[in-house]
Amino acid sequence: MRHNNKINHLGRTYAHRDAMLSNMAISLIQHKRIFTTLAKAKELRKYIEPLITKSKTDTTHSRRVVFKNLSNKFAVKELFQEVSQKIGDRPGGYTRIIKIGNRLGDNASTCFIELVDYNELMLQDKVPAKVKTTRRSTRKGAGKGNAAATAEVAETAAPKKEPKAKAAKAPEAKIKESKAKETKVEKPVVETPAKEIIAAAEGPATPEDKE
After folding, report:
1. Are 30 and 36 in contact (CB under 8 A)?
2. Most CB atoms closer than 10 Å: which of 24, 153, 165, 171?
3. pLDDT of residue 194
4. Could you tell me which of 129, 55, 60 has the C-alpha nearest to residue 94?
5. Measured between alpha carbons, how far is 17 from 33 in angstroms, rounded to an integer?
6. CB neighbours (10 Å) of residue 116?
7. pLDDT for the residue numbered 170
8. CA-CA distances (angstroms) from residue 188 to 7, 58, 82, 185, 194?
C-alpha cells in the first residue's frame, strides 16, 4: 500500500526518473516552454524551481550544485547569466502550467509548462489598476448639493478681478471737482456808507433822541 507516499515515480526506476527530469529541465531552460503530460509537469516543477532559486546567487558552489543536477554546461551558463537576471525580483513561482486537454492515444492529460517571465503575451494582458471613481446619487437633494459645491469651487478657483473701472474714474472725478470750484461765481461786495454803519452800531433811535 502507498500510505504517506507522496512521490510520483512515473512508472520508472529512480535512475530513469532522475535522468528524465534532468533532460526536461535542460529543455525548459533552453526553450523556455515545453509540451508534456500533466503528471510529468508537476514533478518537473518541484525539480527545477529550487535550481532557479539557487541560480540567484552566482557563486562557484551554486554553479556546482546546479551542474550536478543538470550535467549540461550550456544550460547552466544560460540559467545563471540570462534566466536568473530576468527572474531575480520574483520570490518564487517561476513556472506556469497550462492545461490543453487529453491526448488522443491514451487519453492522458497534457499541458504546457513555461517560465513565467518569458511569456510576453500574458505580460501585456495585465489589467491596469482600477481608478477610484465617485458614484452619482439619484436622490432629489443630491444634485443641488453637488451644484453648490461646484459653484464654491469655481469661485475660489477663479482669480479675483480688480475694479479697473473705479480706478480709472477716480482721477477724472478729482479733475471735475477742481474745475467746479474754479468756476464758482463770487458774490459782489456792496459797500455801505459810513452813516448807516454808525446808525446800526448805535441801535434804533428813541423818542428822547428825536427831541
Report:
1. no
2. 24
3. 60
4. 55
5. 20
6. 15
7. 55
8. 133, 117, 114, 9, 19
What contacts 73, CB < 8 A, 6 or more positions away? 67
Domains of the chain, by residue range, sit at 14-124
Q: Which three cell numbers stand for residue 22?
A: 534532468
Q: Say which amino acid occupies 129.
A: A
Buried b or exposed e, range 25-46, using 16+ CB within 10 angstroms: bbebbeeeebebbbebbebbbe
Please report the DSSP string for 122-187 in residue order: HHHTPPPPPPP-PPPP-SHHHHHHHHHHHHHHHHHHSPPPP-HHHHHHHHHHHHHHHHHHHTPPPP
Residues in the chain predicted with pLDDT less than 70, given as ranges, are 123-176, 178-211
Backbone angles phi, psi at 71, to 5 degrees: 55, 35
Residue 190 one-letter amino acid? V
- How far is Cα 113 from Cα 42, in angstroms, rounded to an integer? 9
Which residues, 6 or more positions from 54, have their beta carbon under 8 angstroms from its beta carbon? 62, 65, 66
C-alpha cell at 112: 504546457
> Which fold, 14-124?
50s Ribosomal Protein L17; Chain: A, (3.90.1030)
